[in-house]
Amino acid sequence: MRFVLVVMFLSVAAATASAKNCTDDCDAARFLDLQNCAVAEENASIECQNLEIQNSMCAELVHECQLCCLEMNGSCCHNDCSSLCDQFDVAPCWQEASANRVLCDEAANLAHATCLDECAVSSVPLPSSFALHFAAPNPFNPSTRISWSLPAESDAKLEIFDSKGRHVVTLVDGWVDAGQGSVLWRGKDSMGTRASSGVYFYRLRAGNFEDTKRMLLLK
User: Fold this and answer.
1) pLDDT per residue over 110-160, tens digit each?
2) To 10 degrees, the CA torsion angle through 118, 120, 121, 123?
3) I need a labelling partner for 165 at 20 to 30 A (CA). Which of 82, 85, 108, 148 fits?
4) How far is CA 51 from the centre of its chain?
5) Contacts of 210 (CB under 8 A, 6+ apart)
6) 145 Cβ partners below 8 Å, 6+ apart?
7) Are 157 and 205 in contact (CB under 8 A)?
8) Residue 148: how many CB atoms within 10 A of its CB?
9) The CATH number of domain 131-217, selected from 3.40.50.1450, 2.60.40.4070, 3.40.50.2300, 1.10.260.40
10) For the chain, which residues make up each domain, given as ranges?
11) In the predicted model, is pLDDT for residue 105 greater than 80?
12) Least confident of 81-85, 173-177, 192-196, 210-214
């Protein structure tokens, strides 16, 4: 018994250490992503500053254009002197740089949250064996949850039968991920009709594993 407890303790300790390493990697990735966001914002700021310089230089051209229109009676006048600097409009540049930084930070934070979620899933130890658990609640009305444990990804099928062995409904049919899983049965058959009260059996097949348990639907 002591040996079993030691093994369990070591398994939990290893899982805890693995989870910490995973979250540390997530934090490091987020730090790097935010640094990249800051660098991108700095580069955008430089572009906007250069645009401000060009806009300032263009302002002199506008001034000369306006003087020409006044002094030469419009012979060298541009249709709209101020439009000469439209290509150097600074406000949209700063607005875009600010919006891009916000989007970049949000993307980094979302990636971090997703990474932490994946760490939480991967840190949960997989079951050591196949198992079909008791439905809860049982007896039930109108619904009950059926759960199982799979040590490996399996092609699984979970079916409900009435007391006479007649098929009622299939709740699961396909590949199921390893780990703990469950499905809710709302007390209806495959046509969506409410099942009558009585004893029902639920059977799980997964690989070479098969188990059947019973439950009671009350009205």
Assistant:
1) 888 888 877 776 666 778 899 999 999 999 999 999 999 999 999 999 999
2) 120
3) 148
4) 39
5) 203, 204
6) 135, 136, 182, 183, 184, 185
7) yes
8) 23
9) 2.60.40.4070
10) 2-123, 131-217
11) yes
12) 81-85
* Whole-number pLDDT of residue 101: 86
User: Cβ-count burial of 39 within 10 angstroms (0-12 exposed, 13-18 middle, 19+ buried)?
Assistant: exposed
Compute the C-alpha angle 27/32/38, nearest 5°: 125
Residue with tokens 């009622």: 168
Q: Residue 171's closest CA among 193, 187, 195?
A: 187
In the predicted structure, residue 176 carries a pLDDT above the cut 70: yes
Q: With contact defined as beta carbons under 8 Å apart, do 180 and 127 qualify? A: yes
Between CA 187 and CA 144 the distance in angstroms is: 8
Q: What whole-number distance in Å separates Cα of residue 179 and Cα of residue 176?
A: 9
Q: Which amino acid is at 179?
A: G
Tens of pLDDT, residue by residue over 43-66, are 988 888 888 887 777 766 666 676
